[in-house]
Design a protein that fits this description.
Elements: E1 5-10, E2 21-26, E3 39-44, E4 47-53, H1 68-77, E5 82-91, E6 101-103, E7 106-110, H2 135-147, E8 152-154, E9 157-161, H3 169-177, E10 182-184, H4 190-196, E11 201-209, H5 222-245, H6 273-278, H7 284-287
Parallel strand pairs: 1-4, 1-5, 5-11, 6-8, 7-9, 9-10
Antiparallel strand pairs: 2-3, 3-4, 5-10, 6-11
Length: about 290
């Protein structure tokens, strides 16, 4: 089998991955709470794939209710080496119309009600996040969209808002002035937690709407978002299959594989041993050296 184990975090349009063989839903427990759903485990060719519905099957979870810590921890426990996240977004740019796929390379965090780290009192770590996504995975994801017959842009700044309400027009215009290109509700803290778990992470965004900044145009609505998501979902499934099939046979190491090296600042005599037990999957490589 391949050295790659690809974790996929996505929405309802990806449940039926035609190329997925030996597929079965498996429950994975996490000390950080309940993941959004069971994990759909299978393979595409020789590559193991682990799919987790971000909002749960049937979309019962609001963006703020998604337990991103449990989700990332569960994917790590399921053996994932890398994560490809697929998410619907609004566009803050004329150059990124609905229907376009975009790889994200930067984030602006406007969330406020979500735990955003695995670390806590008794084991403090500061992980580098200047370049928050994996360039290797991002480039392969964009190429996979093109191979599947879609249009893909590379490199965009994603602003993560708390939600669940959509933006006001004033907010939407302000975010454009900040230099954001895309807006969504789920990219963070997901990407931060993946970095703490030493999992290379790419976010493939599917543009569904223009948010609320365009003059003389109706603001974003659920109906419009769902309609565009349905149009995008078939292409997303094809792109996912193309992405996995195009992976190199050998997974060469990524700098993100060792993101926790030199990140822990707490003195060993102050370690909270209870917390360390919870981190057995997320930080297992590091803990084995302490």
């Amino acid at each position: 089998m391949s050295e790659w184990v690809i974790g996929v975090i996505g929405g309802s349009g990806l449940y039926a991955i035609d190329a997925l063989e030996d597929a079965q839903w498996i429950a994975v427990k996490s000390p950080f709470g309940t993941p959004s759903d069971e994990i759909l485990c299978g393979r595409i060719g020789s590559v193991q794939v682990r799919f987790l519905p971000r909002h749960g099957r049937g979309h019962p979870l609001t963006p703020s209710a998604v337990n991103a810590r449990a989700n990332i921890d569960a994917l790590k426990r399921a053996g994932c080496t890398d994560i490809l996240a697929i998410s619907a977004v609004g566009s803050l740019s004329e150059d990124l119309p609905p229907g376009r796929f975009v790889t994200v390379d930067q984030f602006i965090d406007r969330t406020s009600a979500r735990p955003s780290t695995f670390f806590d009192v008794g084991f403090v770590a500061h992980v580098g996040f200047a370049d928050p996504t994996c360039p290797r995975l991002s480039a392969m994801a964009a190429e996979a969209v093109r191979a599947a017959g879609g249009e893909a842009s590379e490199g965009a700044t994603y602003i993560a808002m708390e939600g669940p309400q959509f933006s006001t027009r004033a907010e939407s215009r302000m975010y454009r002035q900040w230099g954001a290109h895309l807006i969504g509700m789920t990219g963070l803290p997901e990407a931060k937690l993946a970095r703490e778990a030493e999992l290379p992470y790419a976010l493939l965004a599917m543009v569904t709407d223009y948010d609320a900044w365009r003059e003389g145009e109706a603001a974003v609505s659920v109906d419009a978002v769902v309609a565009q998501m349905q149009d995008n979902s078939a292409l997303a499934r094809k792109a996912l299959t193309a992405f996995v099939r195009a992976l190199p046979e050998r997974r060469t190491p990524s700098p993100i594989d060792t993101a926790l090296d030199d990140a822990v600042i707490t003195n060993p005599d102050k370690f909270d041993r209870t917390l360390l037990v919870k981190l057995d999957a997320v930080a297992g490589r590091l803990l084995g050296r302490i």
